[in-house]
Here is the input.
Amino acid sequence: MLLEVNQLHKSYHKRGKTVTAVDGVSFYLDGGQILGFLGPNGAGKTTTIKMIAGLIAPDAGDATIAGESVVHKGQRALRHVGAVLEGSRNLYWRLSPLENLEYWAGLRGVRKREARLRAKELLERFELTDKMNQTVQQLSRGMQQKVAICAALIHEPKLLLLDEPTLGLDVESSDRIQTLVQSLVREQKIGVVLTTHQMDVAETLSDRIAIIQTGTIVLEGLKREVLDRFTGNAYLVELGQRLEPQVRSRLEAEGVVFENERAFRIAVAVPEDLYVLLKAIEPAPVLRIERDAADLGRVFRHYTGGQENQAL
Ligand SMILES: Nc1ncnc2c1ncn2[C@@H]1O[C@H](COP(=O)(O)OP(=O)(O)OP(=O)(O)O)[C@@H](O)[C@H]1O
Here is the structure.
C-alpha cells in the first residue's frame, strides 16, 4: 500500500472558538492510482492534504507513506512525497524552469549532475524544453503549472499531491496536463491524490473517489463501482414519434419523466420492467434505449446535500 490515511483529526482554535476541520478521516491509495479527493468548500480537503504533506501536525491519527509514518518518521516518509498545493507557489518567478527545478532538487538532496539530468527529462516530458531558460513569469499559466508539477517530481516521489491542478487553465492546457499526469501514473506507478472542484476532471482522472463533508469521509471507493451503483436501472428512451396524450399521462403516472415529446427517462426496479413499459407504448417506434449513466457530479451532489438525491 502506498498511502494509508488513518483516523486523522485536526481542530483549529481561533479567538476562543474551536473549528473541527478534519474529524476521523481514513482512506488509502495504491501506487499507479489516482484518488479524486472531493468535497465542498471548507470540508477539510486542504487540511487533510497538508497533514499528509507534513505541513500540519494532526491532533490524532497518522498517515503512512510507503510504510513510513508521517507522524513518527516525518523526514523519511516525506521523501516519498511531492506536492503542488496552491497554484504555482512552489516556483520562483524570476528564475527559469530549469533553475527552479535545480533549486528544488538541491533542497531535496538530489546531486547537481543528477538534478540537471532529471530536470531536463521532466521538462521534455512536459513539453517545456524550448522554454527551460525563460523566466517563469514569462510563461503562460498552463506552462507555469506544468513547471510546478515538474518541480514536485524532481526527487522522484512515489506520491504526488495535486491541489486543483487545472483550475483557471484553458481547455487545451487542462487536457494536456490531465493526459500528462495520467501517463506518469500509468508508466511510473506513482500515486496521486487530486483535489478538485472540477467534476469532469475528477471523473476523467480518478481511479478511486473519496468525498469529504464537514471533516468526515462520506463516500470512498473505486470510481467505476461508485458510478455503477448510481447508474442502477435508469434508462433513457428515445422514440420515433410522439405518444398519444393518454399514453403519455399513463406513463407519467408510473414515474416516467419526459425530457421532451420524444424522449423520456425511467428508473425500473428490475430490467424486465422495462420490457413491460415498452409494450405499453406500442406501436410507437423506439429509436434508442440507453442506460442513463450517472456522472460524478450527480454522486457528489447526492453526498454533499445537492438537489439530485433521487439516484439511490
Ligand atoms: N488556519 C486556520 N485557522 C482556522 N480555521 C481554519 C484554518 N484553516 C482551515 N480552517 C477551517 O477548517 C475547515 C476546513 O478547511 P479546509 O481549508 O481544510 O477545507 P477545504 O475542503 O480545503 O476547502 P476549500 O475547498 O474551500 O479549499 C473550514 O471550516 C476552515 O474555515
In short: The chain has two domains: 3-223, 233-293. Residues 307-312 have pLDDT under 50 and may be disordered.
